[in-house]
Design a protein that fits this description.
CATH architecture: Beta Barrel
CATH superfamily: TonB-dependent receptor, beta-barrel domain
Shape: globular
Subcellular location: Cell outer membrane
Protein name: TonB-dependent receptor
CATH class: Mainly Beta
Main location: membrane
Radius of gyration: 28 Å
CATH topology: Maltoporin, Chain A
Number of domains: 1
Structural class: mainly beta
InterPro entries: Beta-barrel_TonB, Beta-barrel_TonB_sf, Plug_dom, Plug_dom_sf, TonB-dep_rcpt-like
Helix content: 10-25%
Number of strands: 44
Largest sheet: 22 strands, antiparallel, barrel
Distance between the termini: 56 Å
Family: Belongs to the TonB-dependent receptor family.
Number of helices: 13
Oligomer: single chain
Length: 823
């Protein structure tokens, strides 16, 4: 699938010299633990089905341990992953107020959340959110149950199937836990808002010859209003509470005058969205006999989340023949003619702010049996079921049809600058609560067999069968297009896939090992897909090793991509004709049942070097190429091209060369392409009581659909900084006191907002914390995130607060404390 000879040559060099693993300090600790267990057990590493005694495989894996998570004050999986240098583009999280539905996602390499596979203990998680989702809501995974997070920074479709194009996030939970752990935590900004708190309990004990782990977690995240941050400029929307007719505002004396002011929507919009999470989970492990193990785990999470935006902006085309002449005659042209229609726009402050609420229930249950044979082989069987049910509502939505009739019936009221009583809106059926529901379901059966021959050839074979379904049903008023919000059709569909895979690891010498894998997936929607992987490791000395992987991958179209009907979205766009009065322009999004899978090629090449005792470094080159990508065209680019006279661009997004944007459409297609490459570099140094880790990603290229986004930032696609780094220092100050310093660096980027270029400066966030241990049972942790209260960089076409919240911190200096008690 590769079409670049240089890449193939690089691989041929790599298989004789080989590639590298990007490792954090936690990786080094994990490798030491694995080395101590060499004679005890063989373990499964993320990215391979073969049980191994060595952590070092041909694929780059980074590990984040529970201790590091706790010391950093992270309270969500999304927050943990978003600060990693490998994260780019744009992802959803606590600061995503517009259109997130309360979900949290991870975006490895900036290639899209739908291209990162999320596993729990090596098995798939059900897609989750408000319905017919294509990615996992990371809120569903409680932090208190996490032992470690493994990030595979390489394509892994040959091992795991669809969605693993950009990499894999495998969350490992605590097992074989003995005792009880209680934790209480809280945080607040130095502005006195965003107050958050949480409590978790974990207990493990022997039961029926096995180990049972039970846990529960509750967390509450407080809200922050956008206008409460000094860097947020007042909004200037053309939709004002007094209303406009034909672009003019009422003067209070029966006439209209030009509008010379705007509406500040930041005073009612959230910068940090509140949510409540309740999770309960359990795991059970038991030896059925000397050669057979049984395991089971169950997890349930209830999420109640809220977003808030300024009151609904309503736009109604009024028939002037139905208006009293005292109003319509004021809009006569020089010939005395009155337009057939006049646009009436009003910020519906009379009804109150738009309040988006979601209640999602996600359950996942998995059972497995694993057996050990005399020839050092193992077999396993597992069944995993996941379901997500969601109800979401929008308070203070506006019924466009009823509003139009009320305007005709009460013209003196609507064409005056006075507020309209909410009771009047309710009486006329204008203000209502929008009710939507949706869900996702997944069921997977898997069986595998792995072992080691007398020649030390490792192998793994297996089969899987998976069923996926999803639906989303918008409120009937929204479906009929009678709301002032965008019209949306329902989504519903399902598919099934049957798979078989083979993986081998062949040691050609004591130093040189070649790995290979292939997988075939047969989908009910489009047919079959075959992927493969070829990698190798070469160890020159005990201290220096090279490794490389060449692989193909694919991503099957999701339920929402296949079966979604029209869905309107108000995107921030620049109208080159100047016809649009507002930067938020309606774009109609559509799906396609005939979509085909995306295809990808990936390549990694690097080195691992233990320079001296306690000092090690890793260096990796990586490259990904996606063809037939399921994506929407860059609407802004097509608008610009159409304005320049390119008719094909006009046709692509369904507009005219004169700038008629009334049917602006962005359909999903397989015409997309994505090419990205870069370098990962890690340095770890530990001596005495100190541990230093520096981790960086340098982006060489990110090109999508022919547009180069390298080193750029944009409100619609996020940020692609050329250099992102983290630096961490851990110090055991005394036997009872440890301290941590954690810094995150983001290199400045360039952008273009409505034809005007801009740049952002380099940003460094400083975070400090300290932990005091009262023996082995009790500890206290306290710290400050964003110690210097560094403000986000201004992005004029940002998706919120004139910035990109998933790239920059919009919360500010935050204090956190926690205490943990074990008994």
């Amino acid at each position: 699938m590769f079409n670049k000879n240089s890449i193939v040559k690089a691989f041929l060099f790599g298989t004789s010299t080989v590639s590298a693993l990007s490792v954090t300090a936690a990786n080094a600790e994990a490798q030491q633990d694995a080395q101590q267990a060499l004679d005890v057990e063989r373990i499964e590493i993320t990215g391979s089905r073969i049980n191994r005694t060595d952590m070092e495989t041909a694929s780059p894996v980074a590990v984040i341990g529970a201790e590091q998570i706790a010391k950093s004050g992270f309270t969500s999986v999304q927050e943990i992953l978003n600060v990693q240098p490998t994260a780019a583009g744009m992802s959803l999280g606590a600061t995503s107020n517009n259109g997130s539905g309360g979900s949290a996602t991870v975006n490895l390499r900036g290639m899209g959340a739908q291209r990162t596979l999320v596993l729990l203990n090596g098995r798939r998680m059900v897609a989750s959110g408000t319905g017919a989702d294509s990615s996992v809501d990371l809120n569903t995974i409680p932090v208190s149950m996490i032992k470690s997070i493994e990030i595979l920074k390489d394509g892994a479709s040959a091992v795991y199937g669809s969605d693993a194009i950009a990499g894999v996030v495998n969350i490992i939970t605590k097992k074989d836990f003995d005792g009880t752990e209680l934790k209480v935590e809280a945080s607040q900004t130095d502005k006195g808002d965003g107050t958050s708190s949480g409590f978790s309990a974990l207990t493990g004990f022997e039961l029926a010859g096995g180990n049972l782990v039970l846990g529960a977690q509750y967390s509450n995240r407080g809200e922050i209003i956008q206008s409460d941050r000094d860097f947020v400029s007042p909004g200037q929307s053309s939709y004002v509470p007094e209303g406009t007719l034909g672009g003019l505002v009422p003067d209070g004396n029966g006439g209209f005058i030009p509008r010379d002011y705007g509406y500040d929507y930041t005073k009612q919009s959230y910068a940090q969205t509140p949510n409540d999470l309740v999770s309960v989970f359990s795991g059970f492990n038991r030896e059925l006999d000397a050669d057979t193990e049984f395991s089971a785990d169950v997890m349930f999470t209830r999420r109640d989340s809220t977003q808030q935006m300024a009151p609904q902006p309503a736009a109604i085309d009024l028939d002037t023949s139905k208006l009293d002449s005292k109003w319509s005659d004021q809009f006569q042209d020089e010939n005395g003619d009155v337009p057939a229609e006049l646009l009436y726009k009003r910020r519906m402050s009379d009804a109150g702010p738009r309040i988006f609420k979601q209640q999602t229930d996600t359950i996942r249950a998995s059972v497995g049996v694993k057996g050990y044979l005399e020839n050092d082989a193992t077999w396993d069987f597992s069944a995993t079921y996941g379901r997500n049910d969601a109800k979401d509502q929008v308070e203070n939505s506006i019924h466009a049809g009823n509003m139009e009739q009320s305007i005709y019936a009460n013209q003196d009221l609507w064409f005056s600058p006075e507020a309209i009583a909410n009771s009047q809106l309710m009486q006329d059926g204008i203000s209502y609560v929008e009710e939507n529901e949706g869900g996702n379901e997944q069921f997977t059966l898997a069986a595998g067999y792995s072992g080691l021959t007398e020649s030390d050839i490792g192998y793994a074979v297996g089969v899987e069968s998976r069923y996926e379904s999803g639906f989303y049903t918008p409120d009937i008023i929204t479906q009929l297009g009678e709301s002032t919000a965008a019209q949306q059709d329902p989504t519903a569909g399902n598919y099934s896939v049957n798979s078989a895979y083979l993986e081998v690891s062949v040691p050609l010498s004591d130093a040189f090992t070649v790995e290979g894998a292939t997988r075939y997936d047969d989908y009910s929607t489009f047919g079959g897909a075959t992927t493969w992987k070829l990698g190798a490791t070469y160890r020159f000395t005990d201290a220096f090793m090279l490794r490389s992987v060449l692989a193909t991958g694919f991503r099957a179209p999701s339920v929402s991509e296949l079966y979604a009907g029209n869905s309107g979205s108000y995107d921030y766009l620049a109208d080159p004709w100047g016809n649009a009065p507002d930067p938020q322009i309606l774009v109609n999004y559509t799906g396609d049942e005939n979509l085909q899978p995306e295809e990808s090629d990936s390549f990694t090449l690097g080195a691992v070097w233990e320079i001296a005792s306690g000092l090690s470094t890793t260096f990796d080159y990586w490259q990904f190429e996606i063809s037939d990508a399921i994506s929407r065209v860059d609407v802004q680019n097509e608008l610009n091209q159409c304005f320049e006279g390119v008719q094909a661009s006009c046709d692509t997004i369904n507009i005219s060369q004169s700038g008629d944007l009334s049917n602006l459409t962005s359909a999903l297609t397989n015409i997309g392409q994505q090419n990205t490459s870069g370098l990962d570099w890690n340095v770890s140094y530990a001596f005495d009581r100190y541990r230093f880790t520096w981790d960086s990603t340098y982006l060489l290229e990110f090109e999508q659909d022919g547009v180069d986004y390298t080193g750029t930032i944009d409100g619609n696609i996020g940020g692609y900084s050329e250099l992102k780094s983290t630096f961490m220092v851990n110090a055991d100050v005394t036997d009872n006191l440890s301290a941590q310093y954690y810094a995150q660096y983001v290199k400045g980027m360039e952008g273009n907002a409505w034809g005007d270029p801009f740049t952002t400066d380099d940003v460094i966030y400083h975070n400090v914390s300290a932990t005091y241990y009262l023996g082995d049972e009790w500890n206290f942790n306290a710290g400050v995130k964003n110690l210097l209260d560094t403000e986000p960089e201004n992005v004029p076409n940002g998706n919120d607060m004139d910035t990109v919240p998933s790239v920059y911190d919009v919360i500010g200096r935050t204090f956190f404390v926690s205490t943990t008690f074990n008994f």
